[in-house]
Amino acid sequence: MLEKFQPTPPDPILGLGQLFKADPRDNKIDLGVGVFKDAAGNTPIMSAVKKAEVILHDSQTTKTYKGLAGDEAFRDEMRKLVLGDAVAADRVATLQTPGGTGALRQLYEAIKKVNGDATLWLSDPTWPSHVAMGKAMGMNIRTYRYFDQATSMVNFDAMMEDIKGIQPQDVLMLHGCCHNPTGANLNADQWSVITDLLLQKNAIPFIDIAYQGFGDGLDEDAANLRAMAARVPEMLIAASCSKNFGLYRDRVGCAMAICDSAEKHDVVSRNLAVLNRMNYSFAPDHGAALVAIILGDEVLNAEWQRELTEMRDTMLTIRQELADALRLKCNTDRFDFIAEHRGMFSRLGLTKEEVDRLRDEHGMYVVGDSRINIAGLSGGRVEPFATAVAAVLGG
Description:
CATH class of the largest domain: Alpha Beta
Oligomer: single chain
Number of domains: 2
CATH topology of the largest domain: Aspartate Aminotransferase, domain 2
């Protein structure tokens, strides 16, 4: 049986990381994998997380199973973090999942269960797993134009032209903030126009919010999602704690389904819990318990928000410094958009050949589509990277 497996191509981002590790050069810079890095190039554990772990260690008396839907305190705190008071709590069914990826998977499963003929509309480009997971599950996938290569901003007219073809009960996925891989985000007016269309077409919004707090602030990054949620009868949401809590390896996520009435909440909740049973039964609890402790404790919550603000400010500073350095060294304003983008990523608009030269000639490891992890340039790495880009573009 197993001999029927065929060789698979290496993951482009993880493969890039392996090449980076094997590179003996001291001046190499890794801008691939999307993890926050401090000035020393490390991905630290947040102090609020460490303190929560002590509390959990001292207070936890059992490792028995939680409910199928996961830790209720965690799920309630995540609902408040993402949605605020935009939607009544009794309309929101929640499910604890292994990371934001697990939330996406379970919500994909929910779509297939209730409407297997629905088309899932995804931005072009988007996070590759959005497409790969959907195709592997046999979902109907369509893409809509999103990113203007010429301006490095959202091509909203093209997007609206494409999604006008959306059908009733189709599902439109949007990035809640900090679009991956481009860093280019829709503005509030554009979200409102999209909401109008979804209401007109009787289609369902599906929001992937993996970077809340990495753009302009916790509430600011969720503002457009909340405004849409307050207007639509139903919405699906996949939320992740990997980035904003630094809980990458602990796999902490939450799936949410906004129902059109409180009466449907219990039925939807039970069906989501069954999806957990059919997949992995119980989501891992450790990281979720830490999030619940932090969000539920006034002092720890404040400490966590201070740390998150420092991380966000670091990336915003790097964005401005990189835009300025590239303007000076390349004698062009083509990279000014970097300062306008938000979140961990931006796509530079370099060719594959130029990306290869950055790696081979200068030790700058960039994903093939020229997406860079902005946080990878902390600690004085902006200047050498800008110099390398200028060298590649100049010759």
